[in-house]
UniProtKB/TrEMBL annotation:
Residues 29-239 form the Endonuclease/exonuclease/phosphatase domain. It comes from the Eukaryota. This is Craniofacial development protein 2. It comes from Cacopsylla melanoneura. GO terms for molecular function: catalytic activity. Residues 1-22 are annotated as: Disordered.
Length: 479
Protein backbone atom coordinates (compact mmCIF):
# COMPACT_ATOMS: atom_id res chain seq x y z
CA UNK A 1 0.00 0.00 0.00
CA UNK A 2 1.06 3.61 -0.47
CA UNK A 3 0.53 6.86 1.39
CA UNK A 4 -0.50 10.07 -0.32
CA UNK A 5 0.76 13.39 1.11
CA UNK A 6 -1.32 16.56 1.19
CA UNK A 7 -1.34 18.26 -2.22
CA UNK A 8 -1.17 21.68 -0.58
CA UNK A 9 -3.30 24.52 -1.85
CA UNK A 10 -6.18 23.71 -4.15
CA UNK A 11 -8.35 26.24 -5.94
CA UNK A 12 -8.32 29.80 -4.60
CA UNK A 13 -10.79 30.88 -1.93
CA UNK A 14 -12.98 33.93 -1.41
CA UNK A 15 -13.98 34.61 2.23
CA UNK A 16 -17.68 34.46 3.08
CA UNK A 17 -19.83 34.13 6.19
CA UNK A 18 -20.67 30.43 6.67
CA UNK A 19 -23.50 29.07 8.79
CA UNK A 20 -21.78 27.17 11.66
CA UNK A 21 -24.76 24.85 12.21
CA UNK A 22 -24.95 23.82 8.56
CA UNK A 23 -21.18 23.47 8.31
CA UNK A 24 -21.19 20.91 11.12
CA UNK A 25 -23.36 18.55 9.06
CA UNK A 26 -21.51 16.33 6.59
CA UNK A 27 -23.39 14.76 3.69
CA UNK A 28 -21.43 11.71 2.63
CA UNK A 29 -22.27 8.76 0.41
CA UNK A 30 -21.06 5.58 -1.22
CA UNK A 31 -21.72 4.29 -4.72
CA UNK A 32 -20.70 1.30 -6.80
CA UNK A 33 -20.17 3.17 -10.08
CA UNK A 34 -19.35 0.20 -12.33
CA UNK A 35 -16.21 1.86 -13.76
CA UNK A 36 -14.95 5.44 -13.81
CA UNK A 37 -12.65 4.80 -16.74
CA UNK A 38 -15.25 5.38 -19.47
CA UNK A 39 -15.25 8.77 -21.16
CA UNK A 40 -17.54 11.16 -19.29
CA UNK A 41 -18.20 8.81 -16.34
CA UNK A 42 -16.30 10.87 -13.74
CA UNK A 43 -17.88 14.07 -15.05
CA UNK A 44 -21.29 12.38 -14.72
CA UNK A 45 -20.48 11.59 -11.07
CA UNK A 46 -19.47 15.19 -10.34
CA UNK A 47 -22.70 16.45 -11.92
CA UNK A 48 -24.69 14.24 -9.54
CA UNK A 49 -22.59 15.34 -6.56
CA UNK A 50 -23.37 18.99 -7.30
CA UNK A 51 -27.05 18.29 -7.95
CA UNK A 52 -27.52 16.45 -4.64
CA UNK A 53 -25.11 18.64 -2.64
CA UNK A 54 -22.94 15.63 -1.80
CA UNK A 55 -19.70 16.67 -0.11
CA UNK A 56 -17.91 13.31 -0.19
CA UNK A 57 -18.61 10.09 -2.07
CA UNK A 58 -16.76 6.81 -1.65
CA UNK A 59 -16.77 4.79 -4.86
CA UNK A 60 -16.44 1.06 -5.53
CA UNK A 61 -15.62 -0.87 -8.69
CA UNK A 62 -13.83 2.09 -10.29
CA UNK A 63 -11.73 -0.26 -12.49
CA UNK A 64 -9.01 2.40 -12.59
CA UNK A 65 -5.42 1.23 -12.92
CA UNK A 66 -2.80 1.89 -10.23
CA UNK A 67 -3.24 4.73 -7.71
CA UNK A 68 -3.72 8.47 -7.95
CA UNK A 69 -4.57 11.73 -6.23
CA UNK A 70 -5.46 14.86 -8.20
CA UNK A 71 -7.83 17.82 -8.47
CA UNK A 72 -10.60 17.74 -11.09
CA UNK A 73 -12.12 21.22 -11.20
CA UNK A 74 -13.22 21.80 -7.58
CA UNK A 75 -13.12 18.14 -6.57
CA UNK A 76 -10.26 16.03 -5.25
CA UNK A 77 -10.09 12.49 -6.58
CA UNK A 78 -8.15 9.87 -4.59
CA UNK A 79 -8.25 6.30 -5.86
CA UNK A 80 -6.54 2.94 -5.49
CA UNK A 81 -6.50 0.17 -8.08
CA UNK A 82 -4.12 -2.41 -9.49
CA UNK A 83 -2.14 -2.90 -12.70
CA UNK A 84 -5.00 -4.70 -14.46
CA UNK A 85 -7.76 -2.27 -13.49
CA UNK A 86 -9.84 -4.80 -11.54
CA UNK A 87 -12.11 -3.87 -8.63
CA UNK A 88 -10.87 -0.45 -7.50
CA UNK A 89 -11.94 2.00 -4.78
CA UNK A 90 -11.75 5.74 -4.37
CA UNK A 91 -12.97 8.78 -2.46
CA UNK A 92 -14.14 11.98 -4.17
CA UNK A 93 -14.18 15.14 -2.05
CA UNK A 94 -15.46 18.64 -2.75
CA UNK A 95 -13.04 21.56 -2.45
CA UNK A 96 -13.58 22.23 1.25
CA UNK A 97 -13.00 18.62 2.29
CA UNK A 98 -10.29 18.12 -0.31
CA UNK A 99 -8.27 20.76 1.50
CA UNK A 100 -8.70 18.90 4.78
CA UNK A 101 -6.95 15.72 3.59
CA UNK A 102 -4.16 14.92 6.03
CA UNK A 103 -3.10 11.55 4.67
CA UNK A 104 -4.41 8.78 2.46
CA UNK A 105 -3.46 5.13 2.64
CA UNK A 106 -4.02 3.40 -0.69
CA UNK A 107 -4.01 -0.05 0.85
CA UNK A 108 -5.20 -2.13 -2.10
CA UNK A 109 -7.68 -2.21 -4.95
CA UNK A 110 -10.39 -2.98 -2.38
CA UNK A 111 -9.53 -0.77 0.62
CA UNK A 112 -8.60 2.89 0.93
CA UNK A 113 -8.25 5.09 4.02
CA UNK A 114 -8.40 8.89 3.91
CA UNK A 115 -7.70 10.91 7.07
CA UNK A 116 -9.29 14.37 7.24
CA UNK A 117 -8.37 17.13 9.67
CA UNK A 118 -11.60 18.42 11.27
CA UNK A 119 -9.74 20.91 13.48
CA UNK A 120 -6.38 21.19 15.23
CA UNK A 121 -7.03 18.08 17.33
CA UNK A 122 -9.80 16.01 15.76
CA UNK A 123 -9.50 13.67 12.77
CA UNK A 124 -12.17 12.06 10.59
CA UNK A 125 -11.24 8.70 9.06
CA UNK A 126 -12.97 7.46 5.91
CA UNK A 127 -12.50 3.82 4.92
CA UNK A 128 -13.97 2.83 1.56
CA UNK A 129 -14.37 -0.92 1.03
CA UNK A 130 -15.28 -3.09 -1.95
CA UNK A 131 -15.93 -6.65 -0.80
CA UNK A 132 -15.65 -9.54 -3.29
CA UNK A 133 -18.88 -10.92 -4.77
CA UNK A 134 -20.53 -14.23 -3.85
CA UNK A 135 -18.43 -16.13 -6.41
CA UNK A 136 -15.38 -15.73 -4.14
CA UNK A 137 -14.68 -18.24 -1.35
CA UNK A 138 -15.04 -17.55 2.36
CA UNK A 139 -11.25 -17.69 2.66
CA UNK A 140 -10.94 -14.67 0.35
CA UNK A 141 -13.57 -12.81 2.38
CA UNK A 142 -11.77 -13.56 5.66
CA UNK A 143 -8.50 -12.36 4.16
CA UNK A 144 -10.11 -9.03 3.31
CA UNK A 145 -11.55 -8.68 6.82
CA UNK A 146 -8.02 -9.25 8.14
CA UNK A 147 -6.82 -6.43 5.89
CA UNK A 148 -9.57 -4.14 7.22
CA UNK A 149 -8.30 -4.98 10.73
CA UNK A 150 -4.83 -3.82 9.64
CA UNK A 151 -6.25 -0.53 8.36
CA UNK A 152 -8.22 0.03 11.58
CA UNK A 153 -4.91 -0.20 13.45
CA UNK A 154 -4.02 3.12 11.77
CA UNK A 155 -7.05 4.80 13.34
CA UNK A 156 -6.92 6.48 16.75
CA UNK A 157 -9.38 5.40 19.44
CA UNK A 158 -10.73 8.92 19.89
CA UNK A 159 -11.03 9.67 16.17
CA UNK A 160 -14.32 9.64 14.24
CA UNK A 161 -14.35 6.76 11.76
CA UNK A 162 -16.80 6.04 8.94
CA UNK A 163 -16.58 2.81 6.94
CA UNK A 164 -18.57 2.68 3.74
CA UNK A 165 -18.80 0.74 0.53
CA UNK A 166 -20.18 -2.24 -1.34
CA UNK A 167 -19.99 -5.06 1.21
CA UNK A 168 -21.73 -7.65 -1.02
CA UNK A 169 -23.62 -8.82 2.07
CA UNK A 170 -27.26 -8.66 3.15
CA UNK A 171 -28.05 -8.11 6.85
CA UNK A 172 -31.82 -8.18 6.29
CA UNK A 173 -34.54 -6.32 8.15
CA UNK A 174 -34.48 -8.15 11.49
CA UNK A 175 -32.94 -6.06 14.24
CA UNK A 176 -29.60 -7.19 15.66
CA UNK A 177 -29.12 -5.42 18.99
CA UNK A 178 -26.27 -2.91 18.96
CA UNK A 179 -25.41 -3.60 15.31
CA UNK A 180 -28.33 -3.10 12.91
CA UNK A 181 -31.90 -1.84 13.07
CA UNK A 182 -35.11 -3.29 11.65
CA UNK A 183 -35.24 -1.01 8.61
CA UNK A 184 -32.97 -3.03 6.38
CA UNK A 185 -34.12 -4.74 3.20
CA UNK A 186 -34.74 -8.36 2.31
CA UNK A 187 -33.33 -11.42 4.06
CA UNK A 188 -30.05 -11.92 5.88
CA UNK A 189 -27.43 -14.19 4.27
CA UNK A 190 -24.18 -15.71 5.57
CA UNK A 191 -22.08 -12.77 4.41
CA UNK A 192 -24.54 -10.51 6.23
CA UNK A 193 -24.02 -12.49 9.44
CA UNK A 194 -20.26 -12.10 8.98
CA UNK A 195 -20.63 -8.34 8.57
CA UNK A 196 -22.78 -8.10 11.70
CA UNK A 197 -20.23 -10.12 13.69
CA UNK A 198 -17.49 -7.80 12.45
CA UNK A 199 -19.52 -4.74 13.52
CA UNK A 200 -20.19 -6.30 16.92
CA UNK A 201 -16.49 -6.98 17.45
CA UNK A 202 -15.35 -3.52 16.31
CA UNK A 203 -18.27 -1.61 17.90
CA UNK A 204 -19.72 -0.30 14.62
CA UNK A 205 -23.37 0.15 13.72
CA UNK A 206 -24.99 -0.12 10.25
CA UNK A 207 -26.61 3.27 9.68
CA UNK A 208 -28.88 2.54 6.71
CA UNK A 209 -30.85 0.03 8.80
CA UNK A 210 -31.69 2.59 11.50
CA UNK A 211 -34.10 4.91 9.69
CA UNK A 212 -37.60 4.11 8.53
CA UNK A 213 -37.66 4.83 4.80
CA UNK A 214 -39.88 3.76 1.89
CA UNK A 215 -38.67 0.49 0.38
CA UNK A 216 -37.39 2.26 -2.73
CA UNK A 217 -35.07 4.27 -0.45
CA UNK A 218 -33.56 1.17 1.15
CA UNK A 219 -32.36 -1.15 -1.60
CA UNK A 220 -28.93 -0.45 -3.12
CA UNK A 221 -28.55 -3.02 -5.91
CA UNK A 222 -30.82 -4.35 -8.65
CA UNK A 223 -29.99 -7.81 -9.99
CA UNK A 224 -29.67 -8.12 -13.79
CA UNK A 225 -33.17 -8.50 -15.16
CA UNK A 226 -34.52 -5.75 -12.93
CA UNK A 227 -36.88 -7.90 -10.87
CA UNK A 228 -34.83 -8.59 -7.71
CA UNK A 229 -33.50 -5.91 -5.39
CA UNK A 230 -31.04 -6.17 -2.51
CA UNK A 231 -29.40 -4.04 0.16
CA UNK A 232 -25.67 -4.80 -0.02
CA UNK A 233 -24.06 -1.35 0.28
CA UNK A 234 -23.67 0.00 3.81
CA UNK A 235 -22.31 2.92 5.80
CA UNK A 236 -20.91 2.02 9.23
CA UNK A 237 -20.07 4.34 12.12
CA UNK A 238 -18.87 3.78 15.66
CA UNK A 239 -21.70 3.14 18.14
CA UNK A 240 -20.52 6.15 20.12
CA UNK A 241 -21.37 8.33 17.09
CA UNK A 242 -24.86 6.90 16.54
CA UNK A 243 -26.63 9.87 18.15
CA UNK A 244 -25.01 12.18 15.58
CA UNK A 245 -26.45 10.32 12.56
CA UNK A 246 -29.27 12.44 11.16
CA UNK A 247 -30.31 10.50 8.07
CA UNK A 248 -29.34 7.60 5.82
CA UNK A 249 -31.12 6.65 2.59
CA UNK A 250 -30.60 5.86 -1.07
CA UNK A 251 -31.19 8.07 -4.10
CA UNK A 252 -32.71 5.75 -6.73
CA UNK A 253 -33.05 8.72 -9.10
CA UNK A 254 -29.31 9.45 -9.11
CA UNK A 255 -27.90 8.02 -12.33
CA UNK A 256 -24.41 7.05 -13.47
CA UNK A 257 -25.33 4.01 -15.60
CA UNK A 258 -24.85 1.60 -12.70
CA UNK A 259 -27.06 -1.14 -11.26
CA UNK A 260 -26.34 0.25 -7.78
CA UNK A 261 -28.06 3.20 -6.09
CA UNK A 262 -26.23 6.04 -4.38
CA UNK A 263 -26.39 5.62 -0.58
CA UNK A 264 -26.20 8.88 1.40
CA UNK A 265 -25.79 9.70 5.09
CA UNK A 266 -25.92 12.95 7.04
CA UNK A 267 -23.82 13.14 10.20
CA UNK A 268 -23.22 15.98 12.62
CA UNK A 269 -19.54 16.58 13.30
CA UNK A 270 -18.65 18.32 16.54
CA UNK A 271 -16.06 21.08 16.81
CA UNK A 272 -15.55 21.34 13.06
CA UNK A 273 -13.18 24.18 12.27
CA UNK A 274 -14.51 26.57 9.67
CA UNK A 275 -12.71 26.71 6.33
CA UNK A 276 -13.51 29.79 4.31
CA UNK A 277 -15.82 28.67 1.54
CA UNK A 278 -15.54 29.84 -2.02
CA UNK A 279 -18.20 32.36 -2.90
CA UNK A 280 -20.49 30.91 -5.57
CA UNK A 281 -20.43 33.70 -8.09
CA UNK A 282 -21.05 33.98 -11.81
CA UNK A 283 -18.67 34.13 -14.74
CA UNK A 284 -18.83 35.34 -18.31
CA UNK A 285 -20.45 32.88 -20.70
CA UNK A 286 -17.38 32.61 -22.95
CA UNK A 287 -18.87 29.64 -24.80
CA UNK A 288 -21.08 32.10 -26.72
CA UNK A 289 -17.97 33.61 -28.34
CA UNK A 290 -17.73 30.43 -30.42
CA UNK A 291 -20.75 31.72 -32.34
CA UNK A 292 -19.45 33.91 -35.15
CA UNK A 293 -22.34 36.39 -34.98
CA UNK A 294 -21.98 37.00 -31.23
CA UNK A 295 -18.18 37.23 -31.48
CA UNK A 296 -18.44 39.98 -34.13
CA UNK A 297 -21.07 41.75 -32.03
CA UNK A 298 -18.80 41.62 -28.96
CA UNK A 299 -15.78 42.94 -30.87
CA UNK A 300 -17.86 45.82 -32.28
CA UNK A 301 -19.21 46.66 -28.82
CA UNK A 302 -15.69 46.83 -27.36
CA UNK A 303 -14.45 48.98 -30.25
CA UNK A 304 -17.42 51.37 -29.98
CA UNK A 305 -17.03 51.76 -26.21
CA UNK A 306 -13.30 52.49 -26.47
CA UNK A 307 -13.90 54.98 -29.30
CA UNK A 308 -16.54 56.80 -27.24
CA UNK A 309 -14.16 57.51 -24.36
CA UNK A 310 -13.29 61.20 -24.14
CA UNK A 311 -9.53 61.77 -24.01
CA UNK A 312 -10.02 64.16 -21.07
CA UNK A 313 -11.59 61.29 -19.08
CA UNK A 314 -8.52 59.06 -19.43
CA UNK A 315 -6.52 59.05 -16.15
CA UNK A 316 -2.84 59.87 -16.31
CA UNK A 317 -1.65 57.15 -13.93
CA UNK A 318 -1.23 53.53 -15.22
CA UNK A 319 -3.65 51.96 -12.69
CA UNK A 320 -6.39 54.39 -13.63
CA UNK A 321 -5.94 53.65 -17.33
CA UNK A 322 -6.05 49.92 -16.66
CA UNK A 323 -9.25 50.16 -14.57
CA UNK A 324 -10.95 52.22 -17.29
CA UNK A 325 -9.98 49.70 -19.97
CA UNK A 326 -10.99 46.73 -17.76
CA UNK A 327 -14.41 48.18 -16.95
CA UNK A 328 -15.02 48.91 -20.63
CA UNK A 329 -14.31 45.28 -21.53
CA UNK A 330 -16.57 44.04 -18.71
CA UNK A 331 -19.48 46.25 -19.77
CA UNK A 332 -19.20 45.01 -23.35
CA UNK A 333 -19.08 41.40 -22.16
CA UNK A 334 -22.15 41.71 -19.93
CA UNK A 335 -24.29 43.24 -22.68
CA UNK A 336 -23.26 40.75 -25.38
CA UNK A 337 -22.38 37.35 -23.87
CA UNK A 338 -23.84 37.78 -20.37
CA UNK A 339 -23.10 35.81 -17.20
CA UNK A 340 -23.60 32.18 -16.29
CA UNK A 341 -23.51 30.17 -13.06
CA UNK A 342 -19.97 29.23 -12.08
CA UNK A 343 -20.22 25.44 -12.36
CA UNK A 344 -16.74 24.11 -13.20
CA UNK A 345 -16.60 21.07 -15.44
CA UNK A 346 -14.36 19.49 -18.04
CA UNK A 347 -13.94 21.87 -21.01
CA UNK A 348 -15.22 19.26 -23.45
CA UNK A 349 -18.46 18.57 -21.56
CA UNK A 350 -20.92 20.69 -23.52
CA UNK A 351 -24.62 21.32 -22.98
CA UNK A 352 -25.65 18.55 -25.39
CA UNK A 353 -23.92 15.92 -23.21
CA UNK A 354 -25.44 17.33 -20.01
CA UNK A 355 -28.92 17.38 -21.56
CA UNK A 356 -28.59 13.71 -22.51
CA UNK A 357 -27.44 12.81 -18.98
CA UNK A 358 -30.42 14.69 -17.53
CA UNK A 359 -32.79 12.97 -19.98
CA UNK A 360 -31.36 9.51 -19.20
CA UNK A 361 -31.88 10.05 -15.47
CA UNK A 362 -35.65 10.37 -16.02
CA UNK A 363 -35.84 6.79 -17.29
CA UNK A 364 -33.54 5.13 -14.74
CA UNK A 365 -36.37 3.84 -12.56
CA UNK A 366 -38.63 3.02 -15.49
CA UNK A 367 -40.81 -0.07 -15.06
CA UNK A 368 -42.28 -0.56 -18.53
CA UNK A 369 -40.37 -2.21 -21.35
CA UNK A 370 -40.66 1.00 -23.33
CA UNK A 371 -39.01 3.01 -20.52
CA UNK A 372 -36.24 0.42 -20.09
CA UNK A 373 -35.55 0.48 -23.83
CA UNK A 374 -35.46 4.27 -23.78
CA UNK A 375 -32.91 4.19 -20.93
CA UNK A 376 -30.62 1.85 -22.89
CA UNK A 377 -30.89 4.07 -25.95
CA UNK A 378 -30.01 7.17 -23.93
CA UNK A 379 -27.16 5.31 -22.22
CA UNK A 380 -25.59 4.62 -25.61
CA UNK A 381 -26.36 8.18 -26.74
CA UNK A 382 -24.52 9.62 -23.71
CA UNK A 383 -21.48 7.43 -24.39
CA UNK A 384 -21.39 8.44 -28.07
CA UNK A 385 -21.93 12.14 -27.33
CA UNK A 386 -19.23 12.19 -24.65
CA UNK A 387 -16.68 10.51 -26.93
CA UNK A 388 -17.56 12.80 -29.85
CA UNK A 389 -17.38 15.94 -27.69
CA UNK A 390 -14.03 14.93 -26.22
CA UNK A 391 -12.54 14.06 -29.62
CA UNK A 392 -13.74 17.39 -31.06
CA UNK A 393 -12.27 19.28 -28.12
CA UNK A 394 -8.93 17.44 -28.41
CA UNK A 395 -8.69 18.27 -32.12
CA UNK A 396 -9.38 21.95 -31.42
CA UNK A 397 -6.90 21.94 -28.53
CA UNK A 398 -4.17 20.38 -30.69
CA UNK A 399 -4.84 22.97 -33.38
CA UNK A 400 -4.59 25.79 -30.82
CA UNK A 401 -1.30 24.44 -29.43
CA UNK A 402 0.08 24.00 -32.96
CA UNK A 403 -0.95 27.55 -33.87
CA UNK A 404 0.74 28.92 -30.74
CA UNK A 405 3.98 27.15 -31.63
CA UNK A 406 3.89 28.38 -35.24
CA UNK A 407 3.51 31.99 -34.08
CA UNK A 408 6.12 31.80 -31.32
CA UNK A 409 3.66 31.80 -28.42
CA UNK A 410 5.66 29.12 -26.63
CA UNK A 411 4.58 30.05 -23.10
CA UNK A 412 0.91 29.76 -24.04
CA UNK A 413 1.56 26.42 -25.78
CA UNK A 414 3.48 25.10 -22.76
CA UNK A 415 0.72 26.16 -20.35
CA UNK A 416 -1.93 24.39 -22.43
CA UNK A 417 0.15 21.20 -22.65
CA UNK A 418 0.92 21.26 -18.94
CA UNK A 419 -2.70 21.98 -17.97
CA UNK A 420 -4.35 19.26 -20.01
CA UNK A 421 -1.63 16.65 -20.54
CA UNK A 422 0.70 17.17 -17.58
CA UNK A 423 1.19 14.76 -14.68
CA UNK A 424 -1.89 14.73 -12.46
CA UNK A 425 -1.27 11.69 -10.29
CA UNK A 426 0.74 12.51 -7.19
CA UNK A 427 1.84 9.61 -5.05
CA UNK A 428 4.12 9.66 -2.03
CA UNK A 429 5.90 6.91 -0.12
CA UNK A 430 4.66 6.06 3.36
CA UNK A 431 6.64 7.07 6.45
CA UNK A 432 6.99 4.36 9.07
CA UNK A 433 8.66 4.17 12.46
CA UNK A 434 11.20 1.47 13.34
CA UNK A 435 8.41 -0.99 14.10
CA UNK A 436 6.68 -0.47 10.75
CA UNK A 437 3.85 1.67 12.13
CA UNK A 438 2.69 4.44 9.79
CA UNK A 439 3.16 7.97 11.12
CA UNK A 440 0.71 10.81 10.49
CA UNK A 441 1.71 13.51 12.97
CA UNK A 442 4.06 16.09 11.40
CA UNK A 443 6.30 16.25 14.49
CA UNK A 444 6.58 12.46 14.62
CA UNK A 445 7.43 12.36 10.90
CA UNK A 446 10.12 15.04 11.37
CA UNK A 447 11.61 13.15 14.32
CA UNK A 448 11.59 9.92 12.29
CA UNK A 449 13.52 11.61 9.46
CA UNK A 450 16.01 12.99 12.01
CA UNK A 451 16.40 9.52 13.51
CA UNK A 452 16.88 7.97 10.06
CA UNK A 453 19.52 10.51 9.00
CA UNK A 454 21.43 10.12 12.28
CA UNK A 455 21.33 6.34 11.84
CA UNK A 456 22.59 6.76 8.27
CA UNK A 457 25.53 8.90 9.41
CA UNK A 458 26.39 6.44 12.20
CA UNK A 459 26.46 3.58 9.68
CA UNK A 460 28.75 5.67 7.43
CA UNK A 461 31.13 6.40 10.34
CA UNK A 462 31.22 2.70 11.28
CA UNK A 463 32.04 1.79 7.66
CA UNK A 464 34.90 4.32 7.59
CA UNK A 465 36.28 2.89 10.87
CA UNK A 466 36.18 -0.64 9.42
CA UNK A 467 37.96 0.46 6.23
CA UNK A 468 40.63 2.27 8.26
CA UNK A 469 41.19 -0.75 10.54
CA UNK A 470 41.53 -3.11 7.57
CA UNK A 471 43.92 -0.71 5.85
CA UNK A 472 46.17 -0.48 8.92
CA UNK A 473 46.21 -4.27 9.34
CA UNK A 474 47.31 -4.71 5.72
CA UNK A 475 50.00 -2.06 6.03
CA UNK A 476 48.31 0.30 3.58
CA UNK A 477 47.64 3.96 4.20
CA UNK A 478 44.06 4.64 5.19
CA UNK A 479 41.90 6.38 2.58
Amino acid sequence: FREVPDLGEGPSQIPSKPNPKKQNILKIGTWNVRSLGMTGKLENLLIEMRRLNMEIIGVSETRLKEQGDYWNDNFRVIYSGDEKGTAGVGIILNKEWGKRVKNAILYSNRIILVKLQINEKDVLNLIQVYMPTSKYTDEVIEELYDQIDDVLELVGNNETTIMLGDWNASVGSIKEEGVSGNYGYGLRNNRGIRLQNFCKEKQFIITNTLFEQPMNRRYTWTKPGGKQRFQIDYILVKKTQQKHILQCKTYPGADINSDHNLLSMKIRLLNKKTIKRTKKGKKYDNSKLKQNEIRIQYQKKVKDKISSINTTDIPSEPNGKWNLFKNTIKEAAITTIGLTENTPRKPWIDESVIELIEERRKYKSGKTEEEKTKYKQLKNAVNRAAKTAKEKWLIELHEEIDDCMKHGKMERAYNLINKYFGLKKIIGNSIEDRNGKLLFDEKEIALRWKEYIEHLYNETDELIDIVEDESLESGNEPL
